[in-house]
């Protein structure tokens, strides 16, 4: 059963990824991205990470992709991109070569056994997955126990990001501008 | 009191700093009084240190006052310290004493000069440097003072720099001294390489462990430095030109103190000379006596009064080097002290004359000044008798002692020395007769007059010293060797022992008295009684100092210049070429590499990805499967 | 390291493929928005690997890492899109190749 789910999900994910890369219209790319993200959420469910699957759908497929689409609409850059020309000489073949090399090198790691480089160890105690608790409870304990400081820093990061986004997109009243700033426009 | 020996240096330094900051505001004559006060303070400190040293046991009259760590560099460390021993204190005493008198004189001499306060800034800086030179406890510190006096000498020679000749005379002095400094520096490096220290006490302690070759090399190289500073053949050429400076400068720097630094240095390193091969002191003695004779010959035919005194100074410095070479260190210092008195006196006297005749320095336009300037004339005559070697004036005793030691070492040295003594008596008598006797040859518009009391007072003090300074070291009995027994702790029993009997010494003294008489009589015959035309004795070659200067000019301007240009070309092409080449190749490489920075984000991303792949491959290559 | 009869290796292989596709897309596409989407693809590839390895090793740490990646991805998109908006305000329709001031 799970093999079948994995295979179907994998096909969806890879098809979506190729779609993102290959579609000329950014709106299409965003929709293909949703397809991939949902596929990944399926894999999360398959691995008993129900909370993450939910977050994946809500935050990624929901908020982030909506943000993408919103910007696309706002800027009116939903024009098709000419994919047949490549202005930078050698960029495309080199990109394929580098991508292939990357894949090959990573595949070597996978084939050789992932513990070759990372030295994997099985965990126990709070972090073990095979206990009674649900995955949400386990994550909660670990996040607000072991990783409490990191969570706090994440909060700060989010705050900075919000402030940064506001400042970046703010239309500052430029003193050298000849025309008077339009009220309510900013 | 001994710990406060730093005061000796501190007074002139303080004077220098105060004058540097406030000199112009103080103006004339207060700036001069500040400078003179600083010198008097230094002199009083020296006397106090001298008295404290006298109160000690002779064996304990040598120690170091460490001031601070000057050059800390790993194992190499130079402490700035003062070496207080009889030799350095003797030097400090006469440098500050004569210096104070000349400062006083300069207040009168520089009257009305636009750069009055600047003159005293330099003069105090000079005094400070000179005291660092003599009191420094290491070759490095002495070298600091050595360079300091060199700079001051340069600044003061070209003090009236608006005249091109004065400016180039300063440059000549500086550059010629650099040749000597090269020797000093090499000696210093060599001593450090051999003994790991440049402190005098370490050098003296380790002198016995040196091979005679090393010691010889160090001594000869130091002598090269000393020959530059003390104007020995063939590096003397700067001193006659140095007379371009104001006369107090000539008296202080180019007669009494700075030019004796070379002699002081050689006396200071007497333990090294004792270890060196025998030919090294012989070479020093012969260079000294050759310089003495040569310069005395040149002085015979000079018409510029200061040039006569300049060549006379070179000649007397030659005597001192002769004494060093024959191991007569006490005699060298003795002559240095007496010479400081009478030569400073003669220079200051000549300054008064020049001052009285509105800057005219040509003796052919002097004459019969005795009546107009009685004090100057009287003191000058005392100086003349002292340098001519007439007993009982100071010069007789010191010169006679040098000649006695020279005779003991080699009669040939003595013979050259006695000929020089005759010439000395002759040219000094010529100077005195042309200046103070005979008929007045100056123009009618000149009104020679006695200078102010500020200028005559130092003359009187120096004249008194020139009369009695011989008493420092009388030859009659051992008990009268005051200077000799005083300097003993500094000389480590390296002083040569006179093997002459009393009778032989009397005979030598009589011969030199006769020589002085012959010289004076000869000059009187030519310049007072005109029995012989002056042209017969004023040899043209002597007037040009036997063309040594021209030889130098031709050498440096010809093959020397080509050699220097070769070195410069080597420097420009090979040394600079290597440096520039590295720079240029980096620039070329950078210009090529900057194309990688195209500004295209995607290119950067590509390179980043390539780097990630490379890293991954590197990790995989290192992993053990 | 079996999970429901499926080797972690399969997940990792999928992750590698997804990562490579995203990487190539990032290098090839010029539209900054699509480039961001490719970055999201790469991040998701990593997330798949995290979760799979965490499950294989019986460790909730993998899921926690994904949580943080999500947060950072959200942040990155916010800032990135703000930059895109700011750039487009100056030069409408600018692609990544049009902004080349940062060069040697």
Keywords for this structure?
heterotrimer, A: 186 residues, mainly alpha, globular, C: 104 residues, Helix Hairpins, two-stranded antiparallel ribbon, 3 helices, elongated, disordered N terminus
Write the layout of secondary structure elements.
The complex is a heterotrimer of chains A (186), B (625) and C (104).
Chain A: H1 2-22, H2 26-46, H3 50-75, H4 91-112, H5 115-118, H6 135-144, H7 148-169
Helix pairs in contact in A: 1-2, 2-3
Chain B: H1 6-54, E1 63-73, E2 76-84, H2 86-109, H3 116-135, H4 139-157, H5 164-195, H6 200-206, H7 212-229, H8 238-241, H9 247-256, H10 261-268, H11 270-275, H12 279-299, H13 305-325, H14 329-356, H15 374-388, H16 394-409, H17 411-436, H18 453-468, H19 482-491, H20 502-528, H21 534-537, H22 540-543, H23 548-593, H24 601-622
Antiparallel strand pairs in B: 1-2
Helix pairs in contact in B: 1-2, 1-3, 2-3, 2-9, 2-14, 2-18, 3-4, 4-5, 4-9, 5-7, 7-10, 9-14, 12-13, 12-17, 13-14, 13-16, 13-17, 14-15, 14-16, 14-18, 14-19, 15-17, 15-18, 16-17, 16-20, 17-20
Chain C: E1 2-3, E2 6-7, H1 8-28, H2 32-56, H3 61-90
Antiparallel strand pairs in C: 1-2
């Amino acid at each position: 059963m799970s093999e079948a789910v994995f295979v179907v999900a994998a096909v969806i994910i890879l098809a979506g990824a190729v779609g993102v890369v290959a579609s000329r219209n950014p709106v299409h790319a965003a929709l293909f991205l949703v397809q991939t993200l949902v596929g990944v959420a399926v894999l999360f469910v398959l691995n008993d990470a129900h909370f993450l699957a939910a977050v994946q759908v809500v935050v990624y497929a929901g908020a982030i992709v909506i943000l993408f689409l919103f910007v696309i609409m706002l800027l009116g850059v939903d024009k098709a991109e000419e994919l047949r020309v490549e202005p930078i000489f050698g960029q495309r073949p080199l990109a394929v070569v580098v991508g292939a090399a990357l894949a090959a090198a990573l595949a070597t790691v996978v084939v050789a056994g992932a513990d070759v480089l990372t030295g994997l160890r099985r965990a126990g105690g709070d972090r073990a997955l095979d206990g009674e608790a649900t995955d949400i409870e386990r994550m909660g304990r670990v996040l607000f126990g072991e990783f409490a400081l990191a969570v706090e820093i994440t909060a700060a990061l989010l705050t900075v990001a919000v402030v940064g986004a506001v400042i970046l997109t703010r239309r500052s009243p430029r003193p050298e501008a000849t025309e008077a700033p339009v009220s309510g426009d900013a | 009191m001994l710990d406060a020996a730093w005061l000796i240096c501190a007074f002139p330094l303080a004077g220098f700093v105060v004058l540097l900051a406030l000199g112009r505001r103080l103006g004339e004559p207060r700036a001069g009084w500040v400078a003179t006060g600083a010198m008097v303070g230094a002199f009083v400190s020296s006397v106090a240190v001298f008295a404290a040293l006298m109160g000690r046991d002779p064996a304990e009259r040598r120690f170091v006052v460490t001031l601070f760590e000057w050059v800390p560099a790993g194992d190499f460390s130079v402490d700035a310290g003062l070496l207080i021993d009889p030799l350095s204190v003797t030097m400090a005493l006469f440098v500050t004493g004569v210096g104070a008198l000349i400062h006083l004189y300069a207040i009168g001499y520089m009257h009305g000069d636009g750069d009055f306060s600047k003159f005293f800034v330099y003069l105090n800086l000079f005094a400070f440097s000179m005291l660092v030179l003599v009191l420094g406890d290491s070759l490095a510190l002495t070298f600091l003072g050595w360079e300091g006096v060199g700079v001051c000498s340069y600044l003061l020679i070209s003090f009236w720099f608006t005249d091109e000749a004065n400016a180039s005379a300063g440059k000549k002095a500086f550059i010629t001294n650099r040749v000597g400094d090269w020797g000093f520096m090499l000696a210093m490096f060599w001593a450090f390489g051999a003994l790991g220290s440049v402190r005098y006490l370490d050098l003296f302690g380790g002198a016995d462990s040196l091979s005679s070759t090393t010691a010889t090399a160090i001594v000869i190289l130091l002598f090269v430095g000393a020959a530059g500073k003390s104007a020995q053949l063939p590096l003397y050429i700067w001193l006659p030109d140095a007379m371009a400076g104001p006369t107090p400068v000539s008296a202080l720097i180019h007669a009494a103190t700075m030019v004796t630094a070379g002699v002081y240095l050689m006396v200071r390193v007497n333990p090294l000379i004792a270890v060196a091969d025998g030919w090294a002191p012989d070479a020093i003695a012969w260079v000294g006596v050759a310089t003495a004779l040569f310069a005395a010959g040149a002085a015979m035919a000079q018409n510029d009064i200061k040039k006569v005194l300049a060549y006379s100074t070179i000649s007397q410095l030659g005597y001192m080097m002769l004494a060093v070479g024959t191991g007569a260190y006490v005699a060298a210092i003795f002559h240095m002290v007496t010479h400081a008195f009478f030569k400073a006196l003669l220079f200051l006297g000549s300054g008064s004359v020049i001052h009285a005749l509105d800057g005219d320095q040509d003796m052919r336009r002097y004459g019969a000044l005795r009546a107009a300037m009685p004090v100057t004339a009287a003191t000058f005559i005392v100086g003349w008798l002292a340098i001519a070697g007439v007993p009982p004036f100071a010069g007789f005793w010191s010169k006679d002692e040098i000649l006695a030691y020279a005779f003991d070492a080699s009669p040939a040295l003595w013979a050259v020395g006695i000929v020089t003594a005759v010439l000395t008596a002759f040219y000094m008598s010529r100077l005195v007769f042309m200046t103070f006797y005979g008929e007045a040859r100056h123009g009618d518009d000149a009104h020679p007059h006695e200078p102010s009391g500020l200028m005559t007072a130092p003359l009187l003090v120096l004249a008194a010293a020139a009369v009695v300074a011989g008493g420092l070291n009388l030859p009659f009995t051992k008990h009268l060797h005051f200077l000799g027994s005083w300097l003993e702790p500094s000389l480590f029993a390296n002083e040569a022992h006179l093997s002459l009997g009393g009778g032989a010494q009397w005979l030598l003294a009589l011969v030199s008295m006769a020589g002085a008489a012959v010289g004076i009589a000869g000059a009187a015959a030519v310049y007072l009684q005109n029995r012989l035309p002056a042209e017969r004795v004023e040899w043209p070659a002597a007037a040009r100092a036997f063309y040594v200067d021209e030889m130098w000019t031709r050498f440096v301007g010809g093959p020397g210049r080509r050699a220097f240009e070769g070195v410069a070309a080597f420097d420009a092409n090979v040394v600079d070429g290597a440096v520039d080449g590295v720079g240029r190749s980096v620039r070329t490489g950078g210009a090529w590499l900057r194309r990688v920075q195209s500004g295209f984000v995607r290119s950067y991303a590509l390179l980043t990805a390539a780097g990630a792949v490379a890293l991954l491959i590197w990790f995989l290559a290192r992993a053990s499967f | 390291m079996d999970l429901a009869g499926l080797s972690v290796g399969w997940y990792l292989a999928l992750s590698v493929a997804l990562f490579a596709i995203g990487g190539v897309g990032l290098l090839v596409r010029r539209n900054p928005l699509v480039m961001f989407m490719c970055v999201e693809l790469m991040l998701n590839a990593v997330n798949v690997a995290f979760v799979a390895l965490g499950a294989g090793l019986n460790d909730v740490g993998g899921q926690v890492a994904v949580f943080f990646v999500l947060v950072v991805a959200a942040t990155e998109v916010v800032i990135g899109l703000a930059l895109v908006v700011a750039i487009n305000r100056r030069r409408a329709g600018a692609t990544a190749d049009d902004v080349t001031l940062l060069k040697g």
